[in-house]
């Protein structure tokens, strides 16, 4: 997956600026005013930095609309010719570096911007989602400008939950890690048993971790029953212990799940009779329903999905990447950024 490239590159908007500037693409760059870098081929790059983090990058190049260009001869390319395709290719290359995805994003982005229907919209400008990023593109005065940034979900879009691991110390500017998960999902188990322990061992004291229900019922028939059982554990103040038990002991997937749910309840110290009554009466259903609706409002389509404050993590399994995103979120604050339109490269 491209997220693996991102994690390895560590050169991206949302990370430290130094790896980006050490990229060969910036090796011969001349410094312009106010954080601008002038690259070969007439490309200028404005890097917005804060406390060592790269907050956004804007790439500009002279651009002529395709309709005003002579058609290329059959079997030839406009690459390097100074035509619009050449300009778009240079922009896409820089965006690939700024994203950390390299050619895995640059190639599709170049093809996307060269589509006639997309080129026709450049004068008005538009924004699209590209992986975890927001791409904004616009032409003005013969210049193509493309900005790469990390969109931030408004904090009001997240619902409050009781299924959390609270911060060890209070903070005036708290950071929240929100995990959208499905108990039957094998990838969620990988996150819970491999990534999360590593993350928790290094987690700053003022960071809380929330578990948000996102049962993928269409493919995981036991996702909802296990989620509702965990809510019954939450009613006795033992959600985190019961959650860990469900992800560690997977026997409920192969045998009578209700029997295993009850056995695990006793194992983590719940009042078993009260737990059974809660499960049989489906007292946890409303909380699971609310989590599912929240995930759908956020347009999530898979688990696990992790947010740090309002920033969506590119790779949920990269504990160091999540710690970096926590540091970035502190610097960025909590101001929402424009949402992406449905289109994407």
TrEMBL record:
Transmembrane region(s): none
Domain of life where this protein originates: Bacteria
InterPro entries in the cross-refs: Thioredoxin-like_fold, Thioredoxin-like_sf, Thioredoxin_domain
GO MF terms held by the record: oxidoreductase activity
Gene3D superfamilies the UniProt entry points to: Glutaredoxin
Keyword set, alphabetical order: Disulfide bond, Oxidoreductase, Redox-active center, Signal
PROSITE patterns in the record: THIOREDOXIN_2 (PS51352)
Matches recorded under Pfam families: Thioredoxin_4
Domain Thioredoxin intervals: 144-284
Family statement: Belongs to the thioredoxin family. DsbA subfamily.
Name used for this protein in its record: Thioredoxin domain-containing protein
């Amino acid at each position: 997956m491209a997220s693996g490239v991102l994690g390895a590159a560590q050169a991206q908007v949302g990370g430290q600026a130094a790896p980006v500037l050490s990229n060969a693409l910036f090796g011969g760059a001349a410094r312009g005013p106010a954080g601008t870098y002038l690259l070969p081929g007439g490309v200028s790059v404005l890097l917005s930095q804060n406390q060592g983090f790269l907050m956004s990058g804007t790439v500009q190049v002279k651009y002529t609309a395709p309709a005003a260009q002579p058609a290329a001869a059959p079997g030839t390319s406009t690459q390097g010719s100074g035509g619009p395709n050449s300009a778009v290719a240079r922009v896409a290359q820089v965006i690939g570096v700024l994203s950390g995805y390299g050619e895995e994003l640059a190639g599709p982005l170049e093809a996307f911007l060269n589509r006639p229907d997309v080129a026709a919209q450049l004068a008005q400008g538009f924004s699209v989602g590209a992986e975890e990023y927001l791409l904004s593109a616009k032409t003005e005065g013969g210049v193509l400008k493309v900005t790469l940034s990390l969109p931030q979900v408004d904090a009001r879009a997240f619902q409050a939950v009781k299924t959390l691991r609270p911060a060890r110390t209070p903070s005036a500017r708290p950071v929240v890690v929100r995990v959208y998960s499905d108990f039957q999902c094998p990838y969620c188990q990988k996150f819970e048993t491999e990534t999360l322990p590593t993350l928790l061992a290094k987690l700053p004291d003022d960071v809380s971790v929330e578990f948000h229900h996102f049962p993928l019922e269409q493919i995981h028939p036991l996702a909802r029953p296990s989620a509702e059982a965990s809510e019954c554990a939450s009613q006795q103040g033992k959600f985190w212990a019961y959650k860990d038990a469900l992800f560690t002991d997977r026997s409920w997937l192969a045998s009578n799940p209700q029997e295993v749910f009850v056995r695990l309840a006793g194992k983590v110290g719940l009042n078993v009779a009260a737990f059974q009554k809660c499960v049989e009466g489906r007292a946890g259903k409303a909380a699971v329903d609310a989590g599912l609706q929240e995930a759908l409002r956020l347009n999530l389509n898979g688990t696990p999905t992790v947010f740090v404050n309002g920033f969506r993590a590119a790779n949920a399994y990269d504990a160091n990447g999540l710690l970096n995103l926590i540091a970035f979120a502190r610097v960025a604050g909590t101001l929402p950024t424009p949402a992406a339109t449905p289109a994407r490269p």
